[in-house]
Backbone:
């Protein structure tokens, strides 16, 4: 299985901050990397697919980059509704695997 | 707009079989190009992919659960289902169904999730 490792596991930030979350794959996954946001009690929502493609309707403050084994999710200016847990996931091969999550909390 | 909805018992006894169904609305499960997945999340933990099915019936299961899992599809009802056998308390989780969209190769549509507790 391809292991996905996110860092940090949690972070505290203020509204307006720039936030960066990284995701590393245990082997190359080309650009087959997706990012999800999950709020408590809710299903995850897809934000970014194929490493850098923003899903329609997702605010442009979210962006993704990377290829191979190293990927980044950036929130350019954190908004109150962005406090949530973020997961990366590889779709390069089966079994599909997720990172352990990064919880973004209010400072 | 495609929507997914899980249904099934919220409580299952140890050693029994957990059975859930996902109903697809707003689109056809047979339209092709998409895979239909089950994903679970243990309380307070991360996401674990269980497996997926194509409308033709072909499946792929996570090797960690393969010996206990069956996913099936009923195209006439626009539904796909999960059976997890010989459950224990460790199988207590929120179960989600999701579309693994062929175009995005991502889980682009999710059901709301259903909590299943394994307890006697």
Residues:
């Amino acid at each position: 299985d391809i292991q996905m490792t996110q860092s940090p596991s949690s972070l505290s930030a203020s509204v307006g901050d720039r936030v960066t979350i990284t995701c590393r794959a245990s082997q190359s996954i080309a650009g087959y990397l997706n990012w999800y946001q999950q709020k408590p009690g809710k299903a995850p929502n897809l934000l970014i697919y194929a490493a850098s493609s923003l899903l329609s309707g997702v605010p442009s403050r979210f962006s993704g980059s990377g290829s191979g084994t190293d990927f980044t999710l950036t929130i350019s200016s954190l908004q109150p509704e962005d406090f949530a847990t973020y997961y990366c996931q590889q779709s390069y091969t089966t079994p599909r695997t997720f990172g352990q999550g990064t919880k973004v909390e209010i400072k | 707009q495609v929507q997914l909805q899980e249904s099934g018992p919220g409580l299952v006894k140890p050693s029994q079989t957990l059975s859930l169904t996902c109903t697809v609305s707003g689109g056809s499960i047979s339209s092709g190009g998409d895979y239909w997945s089950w994903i679970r999340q243990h309380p307070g933990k991360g996401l674990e992919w269980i497996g997926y099915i194509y409308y033709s019936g072909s499946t792929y299961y996570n090797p960690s659960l393969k010996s206990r899992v069956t996913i099936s599809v009923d195209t006439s009802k626009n539904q796909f289902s999960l059976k997890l056998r010989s459950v224990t308390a460790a199988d207590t989780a929120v179960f989600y169904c999701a579309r693994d969209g062929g175009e995005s190769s991502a889980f682009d549509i999710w059901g709301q999730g259903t909590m299943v507790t394994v307890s006697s």
Notes: Chain B has a mean pLDDT of 96. Chain B is about 0% helix and 50% strand. The longest strand of chain B covers residues 93-101. The CA atoms of residues 19 and 83 of chain B lie 5 Å apart.
